Amino acid sequence: MRYNFKYGLNATLIKTGSKKDFNNADFVPRIHKSNFLTPNENDIDMLLKIYKGSFSGVNLKEINKIHGIVHSADIKSSHTAFSVYKTFPANRIDIDFSKAMNNENYHWIAEIKFENLQKRPEFIFDLSSMVESSVIILTDIDFHGWFKKCFTCSSFSVLRYQVYTKRYLPQNLIKEILKAYKLKEQYKHTQYGGYFKLITEQLSFGSSIKAPDFGYEVEYINNKFTPVKTKAKTNEELIKILTKRPLSYYQGTWIAAYSRTTIITEVLRHGCDRVLHFDTDGIDYTDVYNYKGTSLGEFIQKPNYDKFKVIGDKQYVGLCGEERIIKVAGLKESNVPKDYDIFKLNKNNISKFMVRYFLD
Questions:
Q1: Can you give the pTM of this predicted structure?
Q2: Which of 1, 23, 115, 234 has its CA 20 to 30 A from that of 104?
Q3: Cα angle at 311 between 310 and 316, to 5 degrees?
Q4: pLDDT of residue 359 exceeding 50
């Protein structure tokens, strides 16, 4: 028997099997075209430039140092949590930026030029992925949530901006997100776990899945669900694609901003000198603190590292008991021989292990 999962947002998913093989074969997200805001040329340009899905930071003072016990914590299903609990842009509004900048009733995105921009000395992390020059595009969440806490300036001028009214996602969408999340948790250790994880991510991230300048279609290929990328060549083409989709393009962008704010707030609470590395939804730290969270959106404690070393941004290795952990962007763990001392990995020798990755 053939079951169709009509996912009319970004994909149509098809699973072939019997009812006994898949008890939730009738799971169908029912989201209809809503009055979600569609980007215009001004918006889309700023949204593309601000989006930093792989946001991360490394303690520059701790690179290549080997630590003993290091603690680790993640936000439980952060994308889903922010989709359910946070607000997003609803409609454009014509209002002077000075009236909207510090007004909690509005969301905004702006390109701002800062004079004498300086990182606060106590913030010892490299944020060059977000702050590449003195001209920066920020959302209201970024500006108030972490930027002002990490940087100082003598003055600034707003080059362009857009202000929005704010609202929570529609209740029917929130219900579908939570429904998918519940099924993801229920089936995460089965062959269907990947499917529900994919559905939950797509519902949570809106039309901007992972990288907003890509359209994603999900096809059932070789007995598995596979994202297929279709890139729009121009902003105009992208806007046309997004107009046909019933989810908010802004959703994923603001979720990324909420993630950055939540993580950096937690880094500052620990104290920068006690945090070795952080990424979009987790931190690795040295002070003794055990998180008690278990629910959606809370920090949950992960197993401690018995030995840990930061190599660089999105690059670290560790041991959890007998299990070795190699988290280096672009490097397959299997490319590093089992008998190799992973704590000898550094910026200079990582590339030789990556060669096999590109040849595989």
A1: 0.81
A2: 115
A3: 55
A4: no
